[in-house]
Design brief:
Number of domains: 2
CATH topology of the largest domain: Aspartate Aminotransferase, domain 2
CATH class of the largest domain: Alpha Beta
Largest sheet: 7 strands, mixed
Helix content: 25-40%
Radius of gyration: 22 Å
CATH architecture of the largest domain: 3-Layer(aba) Sandwich
Distance between the termini: 67 Å
Strand order of the largest sheet: 4-10-9-8-7-5-6
Length: 423
């Protein structure tokens, strides 16, 4: 067995202590514009801890080679690290088998793969794909594309003024021509936690396939795909402390077996002749070309890091941060939170009267506070709330209440700069 940095850094953190956690993230020690960094943009990309950095560094320095193809030592080592990461993903989400774990470049690629390999051969003119008004563009556009290719119809379930989706409203749209329900586990724009277990159960009872976009969920809560019962679950590494450019498609084995490959080349091939090609078995059938090997090694290390902490305590810490952020923002004159669902995770979005979100993001950055501004790849959500953009603070296990206090103070400074502050 290879003794990599990934394996060396899996020592359990016995209790959850935010200051202990913070010491694992080197970037949090830096300053921005003369202020300590308060990184509140985790919904876009979270930072990486030492075990992930060390694992990637160790791979690049000592084991880098292409996988699955070489008999030499480095290729065998790289392959072992890569496949160990697959096994970790399998256990992390409680998949039945490693063949159900497809390693890709991110959530977007995973959704597109399902759209083209599962949905496109299945759909006929008049069939329906059901999504919600909360979706990220990556869970809208691939379905629009496949509808244009097949004559199917995209059906959108509504949201209410809190940013919630009703189970009854979605069930009312499940008809005899509905072939697939695709929805987020957690909204990236509002933080709404969708009742995915109920939705999957309702869809299954009607013979409708299900895809859950878990990009904003896996870092904040424990996910069990067998308990959910979904056909597909997709997520990205870079929102759960891993590097960018790596992600996962989980699919039930019996469904994946029926799907044709999406892209050709590399490990998805067993034999090739000009007369025809024999495709590889799962999971390699869907892994064309040379993958982001270093990123996958980092993903495995990120999962190891998450498994080393007290995850229920970490989730409780994040929930307390979110509640504190809502309370703090509630004291800011002229601030309106966009998205007040009763169950939320990870983030809060808002608009501030008289201050454009982009201007606000620049002011916060001058105070060392990193947030996200814009439509968050959820333009239909912005249209629903009649706002061009929002400012979004999104949290991770390393964030603190003191950082939220700084956020509140910086928002008050912005009000004064724009002549909105109290006399």
């Amino acid at each position: 067995m290879i003794e990599s940095a990934q394996m060396k850094n899996d020592t359990p953190l016995r209790t959850f202590d935010v200051e202990t956690i913070r010491r694992e993230f080197p970037v949090l020690s830096r300053s921005v514009h003369g202020h300590p960094l308060a990184y509140l943009d985790n919904g876009a990309s979270s930072q990486s801890p030492n075990p992930v950095i060390d694992a990637v560094d160790d791979y690049v320095r000592r084991h880098h080679s292409n996988i699955h193809r070489g008999v030499h030592t480095l290729s065998q080592e790289a392959t072992a690290l890569y496949e160990a990461a697959r096994d970790r993903v399998m256990r992390f989400i409680n998949a039945r088998a490693r063949s159900e774990i497809i390693l890709l470049h991110g959530t977007t690629e995973a959704v597109n793969l399902v759209a083209q390999s599962y949905a496109r051969p299945l759909l006929r003119a008049g069939d329906e794909i059901l999504i919600t008004h909360l979706e990220h563009h990556a869970n809208i556009v691939p379905w629009q594309m496949v509808c244009a290719q097949t004559g199917a119809k995209l059906v959108v379930a509504p949201i209410d003024s809190r940013g919630e989706v009703s189970v009854a409203a979605i069930e009312a749209l499940m008809g005899p021509r509905t072939r697939l329900l695709a929805c987020a586990h957690v909204s990236n724009a509002l933080g709404t936690v969708l009742p995915v277990a109920q939705l999957v159960q309702s869809a299954k009872s009607r013979g409708i396939a299900t895809l859950i976009d878990g990009a904003q969920a896996v870092a904040h809560m424990q996910v069990d795909v067998r308990a959910l019962g979904c056909d597909f679950y997709v997520f990205s590494g870079h929102k759960m402390y891993a590097p960018t450019g790596v992600g996962v498609l989980y699919g039930r084995e019996e469904v994946l077996e029926r799907m044709p490959p999406w892209q050709g080349g590399g490990d998805m091939i067993l034999t090739v002749s000009f007369e025809g090609t024999t495709y590889n078995a799962l999971p390699y059938k869907f892994e064309a070309g040379t993958p982001n090997i270093a990123g996958v090694v980092g993903l495995g290390a990120a999962i190891g890091f998450l498994e080393s902490i007290d995850r229920p305590a970490a989730q409780a810490h994040e929930e307390a941060l979110l509640a504190y952020a809502h309370a703090t923002l509630g004291t800011i004159p002229g601030l309106r939170v966009i998205g007040t669902a009763r169950e939320k995770a990870g983030l809060v979005s808002w608009v501030l009267d008289g201050v454009h979100p982009h201007d606000l993001g620049t002011i916060l950055d001058q105070d060392g506070i990193a947030v996200r501004t814009g439509h968050h790849c959820a333009m239909p959500v912005m249209d629903f709330f009649s706002v061009p953009a929002t400012t979004r603070a999104s949290f991770a296990i390393y964030n603190t209440f003191a950082e939220i206090d700084r956020l509140g103070a910086s928002l008050m400074r912005a009000l004064h700069l724009f002549g909105r502050g109290a006399d």
